[in-house]
Amino acid sequence: MDTQPIIIREIRLQPYCLPFRQPFQTAYGVWRDRRGIVIQIIDDRGRQGLGEAAPLTGFGMETLAEAQTTLEQMRDLFVGIHLSNLKDLWNLLQDYCHTPAAKHGMELALLDLLAQSHLSPLAQYLNFELPPFPTSPSIQEEERKTLNRGIAPTACWKDVPVNATVGAMSLEATERKVLELLGQGYRCLKLKVGLGDFEQDWQRLKAVRAIAGEQIQIRIDANQAWSVEQAIANLTRLESLHLEYVEQPVTATDLAGMARVRHCVDIAIAADESVTSLQQLEQIIALQAADLVVLKPMAMGGILATLQAAHRAFEYGLDVVVTTTLDGAIARQGALHLAASLQFSRRLNRACGLATGNLLESDLCAEFPQPQSGLLLLSETYGLGIEKLRNFP
Ligand SMILES: O=C(O)CCC(=O)c1ccccc1C(=O)O
Ligand SMILES: [Mg+2]
Question: What's the family (predicted)?
């Protein structure tokens, strides 16, 4: 194994703008495109590491302009630096916590290089306990079946169960979308709610359960839209639909309110916007405000901080779901490697929110993994596994 340190020779920054296929609607409003910055690092041996910084409103992240400024500062400081391991990388970036998207992007490009220099896929590099990819098709088939039921009792990390993401849309459009997604083999659907009248959400969710049947998991995301009283009333009404969980029913900062909702309704509560740092996770634990946490590497300031938070959550008995922030292919691939490495530790056993690539009209690279039967497959390539960038605007 190549244990020589990597030496940063050049850092390139390239802004991008990727339109959504259809405007994506959440309780935050309508998103038409996704903007960010691609980070390309060349090391002394000519290898390329790729990262992506894409801040998003509502998750305590910096603005795009701030991310750009921070990345330019890093570019000027980091050329010539030697890195041998995760600890070096952690130390290099620990002062950049106030610009989580920029930190995420730089970290990911360096993780890509470190994993390549260790001749490992990133998921494996993140967790050296990981065995080589399972190669026997029979084993893979067995594991696939098990994963489709939402449990991962055997040591499989080659593919990750994912949920389909459905924006807030009309009843008819939701029904069409759900049929399409079930046809593609998804076993877990996540619907955005909380936009207008709860009556509309209720009709939509009832229709989705009727179409999907009881075997499909349905999770919903209110993106902070409800008051504590509304959340209790709405979720009580939804109990009969046997939802998997509700994400962020109330304001992110109202952890006591979220704890109250959790104690009043018979549906699992997931903290999302409420957890963008380890400190916030500790508060959620202290107040018993959630049953599980949704972790977004872009909002947490990188893969390593998310890994740390996930282990903390598991330690306290909270489930974890890794999701993207509707990013380009580079950041999605990073989140997928993280989810795979956590899945190997056998603690991550819920579908992750990583199947967001198809919401975008174009992407950062020509080819990226497509979910198959509700699973995202990892490639065996070293590092992040993205070889070729597309020419993007
Ligand atoms: O979880 C998913 O399916 C996709 C990720 C997602 O919904 C999301 C994407 C961008 C910003 C916020 C959120 C969210 O979960 O609230
Ligand atoms: Mg959410």
Answer: Belongs to the mandelate racemase/muconate lactonizing enzyme family. MenC type 1 subfamily.
